[in-house]
Amino acid sequence: MDWLFPAALALTGTMGVLMSMWGLWYLLSGLACVRRPQDYGVHPAHTKFGILIAARNEELVIGPLINSLLTQDYPAELYDIWVVPNNCADNTALAARNCGAKVLECTVPVKSKGEVLRFAYNRLRGRRYDAWLVFDADNVVDRRFLAEMNNARLTGVQAAQGYRDSKNPYDTAVSGCSSIYYWMMDRFHNGGKAGLGLSAMIGGTGFMVTQKLLDKLGGWYSETISEDLELTAQTVQAGERVAYVPKAVTYDEQPLTWAQSIKQRRRWTSGTLQVARRYLPALGAAQNQRPRLAIFDFEATLLLPAYQLAALAGLLCTALTAALGGKTLVQALILGIGGALGNIAWAALTATAAAGAVITLEGKWNSRLWKGLAAYWLFLLTWLPITAVSFWKKTTVWEEIRHTRAMAPQLPGR
Predict the structure, then answer these.
(1) Which stretch of DSSP H or E encloses residue 141?
(2) Is the pTM of this model over 0.70?
(3) 259 neighbors 145 (Cβ within 8 angstroms)
(4) The CATH number of the domain where 175 resides is what?
(5) Measured at the alpha carbon of residue 301, what is the angle toward residues 318 and 194, in degrees to the nearest 5?
(6) Which residues of 57-73 are buried (b: 16+ CB within 10 A; e: fewer)?
(7) CA–CA separation, 196 vs 194, rounded Å?
(8) Domain count of the fold of the chain
(9) Which 3 state secondary structure label does DSSP give 131?
(10) Angle between helical axes of 293-302 and 227-237 (0-180°, round to 10)
């Protein structure tokens, strides 16, 4: 058994090196956020937008979204608001009509948001919209959103993700963690990619895709429960990029409980695995034909679940390696638990420091956010078993997270 300790040590070291290589790229690309995002200037209103809102049992929250869209700093004749109720057991359609939106009832069976968007696009594409915007029913949209997306499109942008802010960062520790995570994505992921001239990631809401790009892609088409990541994959594969437009702001309602958050993150992880399985081979083939940094970067994004699984395995290997240094069972248990806790403590420290940095950079400091900041390390840690379960049993059907409060964004100064 003398070989067991050096073998475990070698395995732990090898996994650490591989994870460090992946993490180094994310660190370097994240640091590129110090470069200012492209300024798209100010242009006359010219883009005709079709706005799509897939809504499932959203009667109680859809009003503020529609109101925020009706009061945009953009000519009313240049956009239409289409609410697409699907699988509803409430009066979402009636509420949307009463608030002033157009309603397109989904008349076919759908199992995901992507299928709803495809249905709506196929029904409405004859109306000759220049570009499409997508929002979730629980959102509230900054009044300059359409104007900023128009500015981006008129400089040649074919797909764009806006800034995803939070409506309720102070409600609970979980909503605070989710808010910090979105600010991380805004600043370090999308901001970093923009700084390197790479593709940002479409995040499910608050994004634009032009009709020109959809024509190039062969229409609005998705087969996974992660339609946003799939559209990003299609865009990168087609040689285009998703631009980042931080002045186009959407406020999103975050989950309040751990159960809701776990359901949401399990769906995200399962969707990422579906997109990776479907698109990584084609992206690899394209990379072999003509290497591009944009493809490499997106491949690294799709490997995130594998990284998380490796992190969980690395934690277990560290505990095993430490335990093998004990001479008795008690010593082995103490060393193993100590090794695991040491790793977790270091991860908690770095996660909290990163969260504090992004809160500072985004100007979000508020005493009411302390619960989210204190629990952020646990939010990330719980993602590891979520990923492990998703590898074993994938979520293939979209499950709603019910929203029941019509609320305005909770801003730092309030």
Answers:
(1) strand 140-141
(2) yes
(3) no
(4) 3.90.550.10
(5) 125
(6) bbbbbbbbbbebbeebe
(7) 5
(8) 1
(9) strand
(10) 160
Distance between CA 401 and CA 257 in Å, rounded?
A: 11
Could you count the other beta carbons within 10 Å of the beta carbon of residue 221?
16
Q: How many CB atoms lie under 10 A from the CB of residue 207?
A: 26
pLDDT in tens, 111-144: 889 999 999 999 999 999 999 999 999 999 999 9
- The torsion angles phi and psi of 42, rounded to 5 degrees, stand at -125, 125
Encoded tokens for 217: 């892609």
Q: What is the pLDDT of residue 25?
A: 80
Structure tokens at 68: 């925020």
- Which residues neighbour 214 within 8 Å (Cβ) at sequence distance 6 or greater? 121, 132, 220
Contact (Cβ atoms closer than 8 angstroms) between residue 144 and residue 247: yes
Joined tokens for residue 413: 């100064």
Q: Could you list the residue range(s) of the whole structural domain that residue 106 is in?
A: 1-414
User: Helix, strand, coil % (nearest 5) of the chain?
Assistant: 55, 10, 30
Q: Is 157 helix (H, G, I), strand (E, B) or coil?
A: coil
CB atoms within 10 A of CB 158: 22
Res 414: pLDDT: 43
Are 103 and 58 in contact by the 8 Å Cβ rule? The answer is no
Amino acid at 164: R
What is the reported pLDDT for 146?
Answer: 98
- The DSSP call for residue 277 is H
Q: Edge-to-edge strands of the sheet including 207-210?
A: 102-103, 79-85, 49-55, 131-136, 207-210, 159-166, 243-252, 140-141
Counting as low any pLDDT under 50, the low residues of the chain are 1, 414
- The residue count of the chain comes to 414
Residues 6+ apart with CB under 8 A from 238: 213, 216, 217
Residues sharing a CB contact under 8 Å with residue 108, sequence separation 6 or more, in sequence order: 119
Cα 22 from Cα 396, distance rounded (Å): 28
> How far is the CA of 189 from the CAs of 1, 76, 229, in angstroms?
45, 33, 14
